[in-house]
Design a protein that fits this description.
The protein is α+β, with helices and mostly antiparallel strands. It is built from seven helices and six strands, in the order ββαββαβααααβα. The protein has two domains: about 80 residues, P-loop containing nucleotide triphosphate hydrolases (Rossmann fold), CATH 3.40.50; about 110 residues, P-loop containing nucleotide triphosphate hydrolases (Rossmann fold, 3-Layer(aba) Sandwich), CATH 3.40.50. β1 and β2 form a beta hairpin. α3 crosses α5. The model has no long low-confidence stretch (mean pLDDT about 90). The structure holds adenosine-5'-triphosphate (ATP) and magnesium ion. The site of adenosine-5'-triphosphate (ATP) has 12 residues, from β2 and α1. The site of magnesium ion has 4 residues, from α1.
Length: about 200
């Protein structure tokens, strides 16, 4: 490996009772790299993503993000460090608009609700809100979902919903994004689009 890893797994094992989901998995991901984990159903791909995001805690082994041992760190703190993710099964709010779904990704970047309320009439929170809306619109343009930004997420095609989920992960301003099966269930055209967006996002 040349250069320090942004993400490293060292001998990660995960057991659910008698089921060995992961057995001594190690790998390094360098900054700017697009790194894929492939394997058949039940191989442990989602389990690995969950060990990195903090949803699961490895039974053994360690996970490092930017050189820091995050194995025991909670999922929220990991997100705060710049770890973003999407889910294998869509985790969007179906009744909410595309824009509002993406705004959810900005929430950890916003000041507290109480301070927001206090500041609102002074214009501070309003300015902050406008800033976040602008950032979201940029992401919407980048991922070419302008035409559906006011549509309820639940009414979109599967391929578009996956793209909205990616947009929400990007809205967190992450240093690294974990994509769990970003193309499963897509037709060829949707897969090609998604591949292009992932490559372009990585370059940006
Ligand atoms: N919460 C859980 N409780 C018990 N067993 C689990 C749990 N999550 C995963 N497993 C088991 O761990 C193994 C790995 O599952 P995992 O979902 O990580 O695989 P995967 O590679 O993501 O599969 P797929 O391609 O179907 O998404 C499987 O045997 C699965 O049944
Ligand atoms: Mg999976």
């Amino acid at each position: 490996m040349d250069g320090p890893a942004i993400l490293a797994a060292e001998n990660v094992s995960l057991r659910f009772g008698g089921v060995r989901a992961l057995t001594e998995v190690s790998f390094h991901v360098r900054p700017g790299e697009i790194f894929s984990i492939i394997g058949p159903n039940g191989a442990g791909k989602t389990s690995m993503v969950n060990c990195i995001s903090g949803r699961y805690r490895p039974t053994e082994g360690r996970v490092f993000f930017q050189g820091q041992d995050i194995t025991r760190m909670g999922a929220n703190r990991r997100a705060g460090l710049g770890l973003g993710r999407t889910f294998q099964n869509l985790a969007l709010f179906g009744h909410m608009s595309v824009l509002d779904n993406i705004m959810v990704g900005r929430h950890h970047l916003m000041k507290s609700g109480f301070a927001r309320g206090m500041l609102y009439w002074l214009g501070g929170a309003e300015r902050e809100e406008i800033e976040h809306r602008r950032a979201v619109e940029e992401i919407v343009d980048f991922l070419e979902i302008q035409h559906v930004r006011h549509a309820p997420a639940g009414t979109l095609s599967y391929g578009l919903r996956k793209r909205v989920e990616l947009a929400r992960a990007v809205a967190v301003n992450p240093k690294l994004i974990l994509l769990d099966e970003p193309m499963a269930g897509m037709n060829l055209e949707e897969k090609e689009d998604m591949a292009r967006f992932i490559i372009d996002l990585n370059q940006e």
